[in-house]
Amino acid sequence: xxxxxxxxxxxxxxxxxxxxxxxxxxxxxxxxxxxxxxxxxxxxxxxxxxxxxxxxxxxxxxxxxxxxxxxxxxxxxxxxxxxxxxxxxxxxxxxxxxxxxxxxxxxxxxxxxxxxxxxxxxxxxxxxxxxxxxxxxxxxxxxxxxxxxxxxxxxxxxxxxxxxxxxxxxxxxxxxxxxxxxxxxxxxxxxxxxxxxxxxxxxxxxxxxxxxxxxxxxxxxxxxxxxxxxxxxxxxxxxxxxxxxxxxxxxxxxxxxxxxxxxxxxxxxxxxxxxxxxxxxxxxxxxxxxxxxxxxxxxxxxxxxxxxxxxxxxxxxxxxxxxxxxxxxxxxxxxxxxxxxxxxxxxxxxxxxxxxxxxxxxxxxxxxxxxxxxxxxxxxxxxxxxxxxxxxxxxxxxxxxxxxxxxxxxxxxxxxxxxxxxxxxxxxxxxxxxxxxxxxxxxxxxxxxxxxxxxxxxxxxxxxxxxxxxxxxxxxxxxxxxxxxxxxxxxxxxxxxxxxxxxxxxxxxxxxxxxxxxxxxxxxxxxxxxxxxxxxxxxxxxxxxx
Amino acid sequence: xxxxxxxxxxxxxxxxxxxxxxxxxxxxxxxxxxxxxxxxxxxxxxxxxxxxxxxxxxxxxxxxxxxxxxxxxxxxxxxxxxxxxxxxxxxxxxxxxxxxxxxxxxxxxxxxxxxxxxxxxxxxxxxxxxxxxxxxxxxxxxxxxxxxxxxxxxxxxxxxxxxxxxxxxxxxxxxxxxxxxxxxxxxxxxxxxxxxxxxxxxxxxxxxxxxxxxxxxxxxxxxxxxxxxxxxxxxxxxxxxxxxxxxxxxxxxxxxxxxxxxxxxxxxxxxxxxxxxxxxxxxxxxxxxxxxxxxxxxxxxxxxxxxxxxxxxxxxxxxxxxxxxxxxxxxxxxxxxxxxxxxxxxxxxxxxxxxxxxxxxxxxxxxxxxxxxxxxxxxxxxxxxxxxxxxxxxxxxxxxxxxxxxxxxxxxxxxxxxxxxxxxxxxxxxxxxxxxxxxxxxxxxxxxxxxxxxxxxxxxxxxxxxxxxxxxxxxxxxxxxxxxxxxxxxxxxxxxxxxxxxxxxxxxxxxxxxxxxxxxxxxxxxxxxxxxxxxxxxxxxxxxxxxxxxxxxxxxxxxxxxxxxxxxxxxxxxxxxxxxxxxxxxxxxxxxxxxxxxxxxxxxxxxxxxxxxxxxxxxxxxxxxxxxxxxxxxxxxxxxxxxxxxxxx
Lengths: 546, 649
Fold this sequence. Notes:
- The structure holds 2 protein chains of 2 kinds.
- By secondary structure, chain A is mainly α.
- Chain A has one domain.
- Chain A contains 19 helices and 2 strands.
- Chain A has a two-stranded antiparallel ribbon with strand order 1-2.
- In chain A, α7 (188-220) packs antiparallel against α9 (250-271), α14 runs antiparallel to α15 (420-433) and α14 (373-404) crosses α16.
- The longest helix of chain A has 40 residues, at 501-540.
- Chain A starts with a helix and ends in a 6-residue tail after the last helix.
- Residues 59-64 and 515-546 of chain A have low confidence and may be disordered.
- By secondary structure, chain B is mainly alpha-helical.
- Among the domains of chain B are: 278-565, no CATH class; 579-648, no CATH class.
- A two-stranded antiparallel sheet of chain B has the order 1-4.
- Chains A and B meet through α7, α10, α12, α14 and α16 of A and β2, α5, α6 and α24 of B.
């Protein structure tokens, strides 16, 4: 039952995308309605799955990654699938030769991806609603690409097969390329091209790293297992490491991990984005239509952090400790401070929010490379928090832009007197973004710092500068745009109205999410620690942290 | 009875929270003019329950701990529950916060009447009460930190309440950022304690029981970091710059948040953590030194301010400095255990200060109300006749602040001085410093009397002078504002004599709060000191009377004679300018440098790499020139080169 829902989660947006594309330009309203329907259905399914997973928590095996609700699983092994996409045994004589693996359609849920799935589903709904009036040319194409993007993003988080993961990972580029390149701002072509080539160049290197792991697992194991399943690869690889430890054959694996880590890091770091490979992000954000920005910041960047979490840490555990902690830790801290400073110096609100993403994602990677369950949990929560906060910030910037057609902070002052509803939402979200207790940012941020403090005190203390700098640029923006004496840019023709019901509907799920998050923060944290940390201990116990 | 007590304790934070939610959700639509009702009801309810809790605590030998099982965060090694506690210290704070909060909520109903943001105001005030009682009830550091940030948020919202006023919006941002700077210190301090505490516990009891087992350097830095947090919240030097600007908020807010309650959170934090601080004389010296210095600095500034509320704001800084000075004197040397005594003195001063300073701010608010929002003392004067009630209540508060004998400020200030004196006498290493601090505190006490009397005389004595904004008939506070003033005046006058000389307060704190190893003998009154401070207060008041009533030209004359000092004092020692030039501007410039580097250097490199293929293409393009002969030559040359290399190998 649940596994059917899981497939529907991918199938509904894909089917809706095809349907919408066929409808054509003329029936724009129907296109919008279908898209909205599909995304709402997706959100409902995602929530049902989340509740299902939480109630089945005891079912999760504690010794390894073990996705639940896997479609195509068998009774004896509910955590693996039998649905092959490319079977390497086809045409071979099974009796004489060893059995090879297959590239499988292997998707499932666990504590790490469930909240990202929910996040994607919710932000999809908001994206559709915010585009209701903003997009009025080639409506059907826009929504088709949007749905396809949603499908691909969901697929990345669901995939438990390494090739499937990579396919979805790259598939996200195509819709976003068109979304930015067709419906974007004045420099949209340049932005779209840069975004596409930059992130593609990185992820090609990542693919090399992934394939290297598969190859090594194939060659180094005694019975030559060829597998693309991530849980299996993790188990095999860690067994290999352990036996290498026993036979004193560590040198190969040390250098192998080093290169694998660097290769994977290349793609994921660009995606996150870590300093200094972040420059595609502000450009893409500023040029993208609001819906694109929301998904880009809210979900797409999380593919990078999720990739680190899902693949980099388990498949290069020693390298994560020896080079990951100092290198990525330092880059994160630099990113936190540098991103915040850049955000402070922007005149364009959208660019400010874009740079704030660079800063906030630094918290995610900082917590992750604390390499303890405190930091990892904090990092995971921070991913969700950032998705909600920044998604909402982009929504509001979009709303203001829609009203006044300018994003320069200097053009505004004292909007609070006129747009009460929007101001309330903006203050609320900014406060949550700077991590005030009771709103969602606090727990994640605190956990990140507590976790990192145990691993590297200096990094944690330097990182806390982000707390004050983050407050500084957001408060300055609020001060400039919403407080003070009223000054509006001149608009022709129509009266500027406060927040509309449609916009409330776009923001509502996010705001609601923000308020329940602290409570369910407890759920996610205990949840992820039960599904995740045991597998960390698997690879940690053969090499004590430096 | 016990369970009833627990229920009461739960209701203390929950009532204001409920009120806040109700006002926020339904206020604007259903009770636009009655938004004060839920807030007042919740505050009074919380106050009643606080009194019940107080008596429950007084009858229990152990602190009442509850809420331990209600999980909040549980991730990795960080575990925090909604665990709350009630002991002597908490009970005292609770009663003070909710009592003053109730009175100020009632006063605000009159003061804020007709403001378009009426619902917003009461929602924020209720929320503030929730966070504030949560802060004093918390039994672990994470919950404390959460509430700590929460009160900061409410402070931000209320300072910027009139957000259309640019100065208010700027002041709100400044307050938020400066206190947040301190909060980082607090966070780091908590992390240090967490790293070394047994089982990574963050509960107070576990951390404090472990206090003597922390490595010495670690404990010192933990204390310093906690104190940075306290200094930010309680506006101590060098993080004091936000509090005077915070007076841009409505006067009831200045009274409640920026005088009586929130700014004392830092004092509360150090008092709560005294089991840690008592073991670190170095950290205590820092606390006392900063406190004493801030007290003096703020008093000197207060002398020349012309804005009545700013005088009171600097006075708040100064009095908070006194509290820290007392706390910092709580050290342990052999058999001289001064910590409990010091905490009693500090919290007693906090308690009395809350009464008279809230009273002073509300009276100043009443003046402002009557003067059409003018608060510059140069523009009005001689208001004795026009505002009789306000005059009397202000006088009560001012006298208590100045240290007039038998009023509340007199008793508590005396206890503060006694504890500093004891530290001077008993400290083996830092005796000299404490001696200096003691005399500076005496001098500050004299200054306090002077500037308080100055503000009083300038406002209420002399010829009657009204600003044009006031109209011709200044209106005295309506009953809804006058009654809270009267009640607070009674408190400001009487609370000291009831609690001080009878040692009721000391007993409550020491037996219900102090860990056994901190217990100390109750202090005897130091008569010599009392006489001294009475003389100082008399001199200060007399001088002010002479300068501002008898010989009004003397003040200006003196200001001309001491032009440099006057200039420094009236310009607040240029701290705002100093910070602007040394911190804000450089970071802003750095931010712009970062932006330029990002746009041109980092992104430029990326574009350069991106141009790589194009450049390579451009370079090798001439090779493909379409001439068959050229290709043939190249082929021949290539072949020759290849053969040559093979043959010569």
